[in-house]
Amino acid sequence: MPDSDELFFAGSESSWRNLLNTRRQGDDRTTKLQPPSLATIYYLFQRHDFLHMELNITPLQLRLVLCTIQTQVIDHSMNNRFSAVEDQFGSSPQFHAEKNSAFLRQEELENMLTKWHVLKRRVVGSAWQTQAGIACMLLYHLIWLELYICHDDVQAIAGKDGHTAAKPLLPQLQRWAHSSSAWKAIAHVGQIFKLLQSSGGSNGSNAVLRPVWWPLAVSRVALLVWCYGVGLRLSTGSTAGVDEAMLARSPTIILNDPEEDLDAHGKVIHEGEGIPCILAADGKLTPLHCISDFFDMCLKILKDGKSKSSPLHESVHVFLADMKRCGIPYSKV
Contact 239/246 with Cβ under 8 angstroms? Predict the structure, then answer.
């Protein structure tokens, strides 16, 4: 029986038809099984006892289930964006009911992503060092980022429609920067860097393992960390979230430690626990609150992967260089 991966990757219509004919022919005594559809797999995936059913899932089916979850996360994120509402509306019973519903839905999506990761470990193990595997895991962590903050809000704050249009969103950004959602998001930032470093090799020599859209992952994490710094600066006057005296006594915490196997959720820290940092390939620690240094590290990753250059790669490099020169233009609200 050709599995769904084999059918999906058939190079032509004739080869696809030959696979189907092979299934129909052969020994009549052989039982022919029809590969389950994505709808069937997803229906089973939603069952509470799915992980105990010991189903045979292929890597392609695994990726398609993740894409199905992604669609739901984007829908949830777009329906729960930052909104410039007046305080009186925020205290209404309807507002609280909608917030409770959104919280329960987010918890449901978190459980689905966690279940998917458990399934991924069963299907392909803890490592998945192929181009398809790296792409899938990058997408997995980007979906988590979208769940914790809508990328449209990130773009708005970064000035897509101008700083004046974004200013009404800044109070919500300040609250987000001190929430558990922000800490969980930066934990996944660390895992994205870890994936890019493991798939890039020395000076990008193994960059073939990265999907063609990998510069977008660099752009997404750079903008998220920039917004995180904006939120902390507006509320505390420092992109570190603490004053200089406290900063000197705070321990550093590596988010992408290569010795730690934390690819499900990353290293989640809490406010006041320490200073989150990214470990560069040369062993240098870059704190997230050092926005200029962080952007330098992102630009270096793009530069090291230039051997697989593309128009997308070049445009992301120019965009991040412009963001670095821009700094943080917002004044305190």
Answer: no
**Would you write out the chain's pLDDT as a tens digit for each of its 333 residues?**
345 566 666 778 888 788 778 767 755 545 445 567 788 889 999 999 999 988 888 888 899 999 999 999 999 999 988 865 434 345 567 667 777 888 999 999 999 999 999 999 998 887 788 888 999 999 999 999 999 999 999 999 988 777 787 888 999 999 999 999 999 999 999 999 999 998 876 544 455 688 889 999 999 999 999 999 999 998 888 888 887 778 888 899 999 998 888 889 999 998 888 999 999 988 899 999 999 999 999 999 998 887 666 788 899 999 999 999 988 887 654
CA–CA separation, 222 and 212 (whole Å): 18
Alpha-carbon span 95 to 89, nearest angstrom: 7
In this structure, is residue 187 part of a structural domain?
yes
Check whether residue 1 and residue 118 sit in a common domain: no
Within a domain: 330: yes
In a domain, 13, yes or no: yes
302: in domain? yes
Residues 191 and 327 in one domain: yes
Residue 180, CA atoms < 13 Å, CB-side half-sphere: 4
Longest dimension (CA), the chain: 79
Do 333 and 172 touch, CB atoms closer than 8 A?
no
What tokens were used for 229? 């710094």
Coil, helix or strand at residue 86: coil
CA 46 to chain centre: 22
8 A C-beta contact, residue 274 and residue 240: no
Which residue pairs from 152-160 have beta carbons closer than 8 angstroms and sit at least 24 positions apart in sequence?
Answer: 152/78, 152/81, 153/81, 153/82, 154/220, 154/223, 154/224, 154/227, 155/223, 156/82, 157/227, 157/230, 158/223, 158/226, 158/227, 158/323, 159/326, 159/329
Sequence-ordered alpha helix ranges (H) in the chain: 4-8, 13-24, 38-45, 59-79, 87-90, 93-124, 131-148, 151-157, 163-166, 170-177, 180-200, 214-236, 244-249, 291-304, 311-326
